[in-house]
Amino acid sequence: KEQNVLGIEGVDTRAITLRLRETGCLNGTISTDDSLSDDELLEMAKSFDIEGKDLISTVTTAEPYEWKESTDEEWEFAGDGGAQRVKVVAYDFGVKRNILRRLASYGCDITVVPASFPADEVIAMNPDGVFLSNGPGDPSAVPYAVENTKKLVGKYPIFGICMGHQVLGQALGGSTYKLKFGHHGGNHPCKNIIAEGIQQVEITAQNHNFAVDVSAIGGDVMTSHINLNDQSCAGIESAEKQCFGIQYHPEASPGPHDADPAFKKFVDMCRA
Fold first, then answer.
1. How many angstroms separate the CA atoms of 61 and 112, rounded?
2. What are the pLDDT digits (tens) for 67-114?
3. I need a surface site. Which of 14, 50, 93, 121 has the fewest CB within 10 A?
4. How buried is 1 (Cβ within 10 angstroms: 0-12 exposed, 13-18 middle, 19+ buried)?
5. Contact of 138 with 54, CB cutoff 8 Å
6. What's the rounded Cα separation, in Å, for the pair 174 and 232?
């Protein structure tokens, strides 16, 4: 109550697990309104559908702003903010602040812009790189973000996380689809399938319901990571176009830090 966070108790989680195992993800309703009947609550759950929903337009910033804050010293473990600074434009699709902190810790001076910010205005800012953030909803429902990204691909290094990865995947010619079982939690194993000479698995934090279908993507774009739980695409990369995306959260805190080097990889691309 002090934090205004909703919680539930007295739920048979085993019964829920058995049902979800067969049907996949289902909507639910949680309410503190005792006047609502079970039928009304059920109808509320049935009436919501995340597919086709543009939710990033409801959470993005209204105006561009500068971000300066880096990771607090007591939590820092890998940044290199003292090296050459780079200018990065970050599209806010619902960006997590800790992503911005990690970028700043690795040497980025960041301008955060709205989800629909025109690509031509980004080009006019002459950044060293472009970041596409995480965010909620259906990635196929945000064509404006995809079109802006298409105009930027090949001009600047681009790094996408979660929704940003899905937007980048579409900009490169792919599509997205809804997963039967969304990926949620802090222990998803993802295998790097392009690393040379090593078998590298990252334990990752994930929170999404959609994935990228790479079957229609051509050129040198390749799947860089797969989710070992269901073999879905967990990362894409193009050396020629200087862009990459990952379906998971390297900034997770608390959470595994296996994927934190992705930030350094992006910044190194911007400095090259």
1. 8
2. 999 888 877 777 665 678 999 999 999 999 999 999 999 999 999 999
3. 14
4. exposed
5. yes
6. 14
- What amino acid is encoded at 165 in this protein? H
Residue identified by tokens 């608390």 is 254
HSE-up (13 A, CA, CB side) for residue 207:
13
* The Cα angle at residue 269 between residues 268 and 272, in degrees rounded to 5: 85
Tell me: the pLDDT tens digits for 210-265? 999 999 998 899 999 999 999 999 999 999 999 999 999 999 888 889 999 999 99
Distance, in Å, from the CA atom of 216 to the CA atom of 120, rounded to the nearest integer, reads: 27
**Which residue, 254, 268, 261, 270, is CA-closest to 235?**
261
What is the residue whose two structure tokens read 């559908």? 49
Cα torsion through 46, 52, 57, 60, rounded to 10 = 80
Q: Cite the active site residues.
A: 162, 249, 251
pTM for this predicted structure: 0.91
Give me 207's structure tokens.
């929170």
Closest-CA residue to 165 (of 201, 189, 131, 188): 131
Mean pLDDT of 154-174: 97
Mean pLDDT lowest for which of 74-83, 148-157, 171-180, 201-210? 74-83
Closest CA to 88 of 244, 267, 221: 267
| C-alpha pair distances (Å), 126 with each of 88, 108, 130, 263 | 9, 14, 10, 20
Amino acid at 224: S
Q: Give yes or no for a contact between 209 and 178, defined as CB atoms under 8 angstroms apart.
A: yes
